[in-house]
Design a protein that fits this description.
Blueprint: E1 9-11, E2 26-28, H1 29-42, H2 68-85, E3 89-99, E4 105-114, E5 119-127
Antiparallel strand pairs: 1-2, 3-4, 4-5
Length: about 140
C-alpha cells in the first residue's frame, strides 16, 4: 500500500463524530484535499480575521448574469485561490458547466495533479446559492 501520509489528515468538514465512541471523524489523503478545496472556495476573502486573504472571491459573483466574461472571472478566481492556498496540488484545468431550473448554478470542474505523486484527479464544486432555500413558512396557526 502506498504511503500517502504527506497528503495530510485533518478534521472532516463540517466536523462530525462517530456514533458510539464519540471520536471526531478525520479525513485522509485524497478526501482531505477535496475538503480543503471546498473550504478554500466556500470561504469569502476577509472572513477570517487572522488570515484576511484566505479564501476565494466566488461569493462576489452571485446574482450576476452568466456570460463569457463572468465565466472567465470565475475560472481565474478558482485558479488563483487554489494556487495560493492548496500547495499540495497543481491545477491543470478549470471548466464550468451551467445549469438552470429551480436551483440554477454552476458546476466547477477542477482537474488537478497531486505534486508529490504526479497523480491526476478531478473534483466538481457545485457553486449554488444555498441560503434561504430550506425556509418553512408558517401561518402561525391562523
Amino acid at each position: 500500500m502506498e504511503d500517502s501520509s504527506f497528503l495530510g489528515t485533518g478534521w472532516s468538514f463540517p466536523p462530525t463524530f462517530e456514533i458510539g465512541d464519540y471520536q471526531l471523524n478525520m479525513s485522509h489523503s485524497q478526501h482531505n484535499i477535496n475538503q480543503s478545496i471546498d473550504t478554500i472556495l466556500q470561504t469569502p476573502r476577509g472572513e477570517r480575521s487572522l488570515m484576511p486573504l484566505f479564501g476565494s472571491t466566488l461569493h462576489s459573483f452571485l446574482f450576476r448574469n452568466m456570460n463569457a466574461s463572468l465565466q472567465s472571472e470565475i475560472i481565474d478566481a478558482v485558479e488563483s485561490a487554489l494556487l495560493d492556498y492548496e500547495p499540495r496540488i497543481t491545477v491543470d484545468n478549470v471548466a464550468l458547466e451551467t445549469f438552470d431550473g429551480e436551483r440554477s448554478g454552476v458546476a466547477i470542474h477542477i482537474d488537478y495533479t497531486v505534486r508529490k505523486t504526479n497523480t491526476r484527479y478531478n473534483y466538481v464544486y457545485p457553486f449554488i446559492q444555498n441560503e434561504a432555500t430550506n425556509m418553512v413558512i408558517s401561518n402561525g396557526g391562523l
